[in-house]
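[[Sequence with tokens]]
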Amino acid sequence: MALPPQPWPTGQTEQLEPLVARVLAPNPSPFTYTGTQTYLVGGDDGLAVIDPGPDDADHLAALVTGINARPVVAICCTHTHRDHSPAAAPLAALTGAPVIGCAPLALESDAPRVDAPFDKAYAPDRVLADGEQIHGPGWTLTAIATPGHTSNHLCFALEESRALFTGDHVMGWSTSVVVPPDGDMGDYMASLVKLHERDDRVYYPAHGPQVDNPRQLVRGMAGHRRAREKQIVRLLEERPQTIAAMVPVMYKGVPEFLWPAAAQSVHAHLIELARQGSVTQQEDGQWSIA
């Protein structure tokens, strides 16, 4: 999806509904769309801050302006990629609020990155398990475990308005990048099924526009992944192939600078297909039908 025309509302506090406001961070990229969206949930008596974003002085200043001296009950992170959680520590120092949400996770890898690196400094005061809640004046957030994009990914459900803050698991502008070894396609698909079984009214993702047709979008994303899986199987039925050989065929028309990300998704699909016993990797690095 092409970026929307500028100016973007970077640094502004946008009120989306009575209990939800949004502040856009100044970190646009091919993988973050117009930037990371931080959400302020609550009212005058207390807020939760979801996905505080990058440790950027301008963004922190914009968050302080949006908070507007209101008490902050919790700073919540969906996962620990560095476009989501690094501002948690400085914002906690400014507000005195605890950091509550996903578990710490920081992986080292020599492979070229197609997603944001992990935040090594993330240190939560409390880690939420699936179904655990945070309460504030007039609002309740429930943690929904949604591994796949990362193993520690959480969504947060605002019970009072049936809104779901989906982080990077579901976004309206793009599918989520699933990068092995931590990203797991089987977990990602199971998490999509989990969300499809819910009855959320709206999704507020960390990147891109809000999603007003959540179940329809999730159904389409799952179908897209299944179609990619079938495409991989068809290619391997022709002959054993490497990922590098499959990507130009599978992603014809996609700009080449996005092929490394596509290769990671193909790899994630192959790992899941191998787990199911459908494909196998040969000694020369090629993949084939099992």
Q: What stands out?
A: Residues 223-289 form a domain with the Arc Repressor Mutant, subunit A fold (CATH 1.10.10.10). DSSP finds six helices and 14 strands in the chain. Confidence is low (pLDDT under 50) at residues 110-114. The longest strand covers residues 37-43.
